[in-house]
Design goal:
about 25% helix, disordered N terminus, eight-stranded antiparallel beta sheet, 4 helices, single chain, alpha+beta
Length: about 230
């Protein structure tokens, strides 16, 4: 398989899967695109592009949809069931990029009454990513760099090896203190929070655009030292 074919499959794995699953979740809720637009504050044209697989979804868009639809991220970006041995190469996973974060979904793990989503998370140097909140519990382990974390008005700073966990429904933000930050992000849900959809279809920037500012994510915000756009 050529490099261009592999890149094309990675792109489809995000766009086509999100398009199919978003349609299913929205239909399950009984919402029109207009109603979803009203609730999420994402333009109807943008939602139509996402559902048709022609849009360029960002972290902000995906996490905003997760928050408004009240479903885990993996119900929008569901992948094929894991095998006995699962290896995910960094270069094989397309990143979802936000105002300050690049997020690569690596795996979903279901165990008993818990569901975990594992992400490779990079916070770009000098950037901040803001979230209004979303479904689940958030866990972050810093691997390199200094990470500023703000949760519902409380601030902490983490270094390599440090961990933070909190209710993801609370407003929160991540800030790269100094240089870039590399961390592992785990989102935890109860199994009953999942919609269990059937037949899922298999450039750095700091300032949020108007479209990005419409949504929330474990990032989605503004450069360090600037107030985020009102959401």
């Amino acid at each position: 398989m050529s490099a261009s074919e592999t890149a094309g499959q990675r792109e489809d794995s995000i766009r086509e899967r999100l398009a199919a699953n978003l349609r299913q979740v929205r239909t399950h809720r009984g919402w029109s695109i207009s109603e979803l637009s009203r609730r999420s504050k994402i333009g109807k044209a943008t939602l139509s592009q996402v559902e048709s697989g022609t849009g360029n979804p960002t972290i902000e868009t995906v996490f905003s949809l997760s928050r408004v639809l009240e479903v885990p991220i993996s119900d929008l970006l569901d992948s094929a069931p894991a095998r006995a041995l699962t290896v995910v190469r960094a270069e094989e996973v397309e990143a979802l990029s936000g105002a300050g974060v690049d997020l690569r979904p690596l795996r979903r793990i279901e165990s008993g009454d818990a569901v975990f989503e594992v992400y490779d998370q990079r916070v770009r140097a000098g950037c901040r990513q803001d979230s209004l909140g979303h479904v689940g519990t958030e866990h972050t382990i810093v691997q390199a760099g200094r990470l500023g974390v703000r949760v519902d008005g409380r601030e902490v700073e983490l270094g390599p090896g440090d961990y933070v966990g909190f209710d993801a429904a609370l407003p929160h933000s991540y800030t790269a203190v100094g240089g870039a930050v590399h961390s592992v992000l785990l989102l935890q849900y109860r199994a009953d929070q999942r919609l269990h959809l059937s037949d899922p279809v298999p450039g750095p920037r700091c300032a949020a655009t108007d479209a990005q500012a419409e949504a929330a994510a474990p990032g989605g915000g503004a450069p360090t030292g600037q107030d985020p756009e009102p959401v």
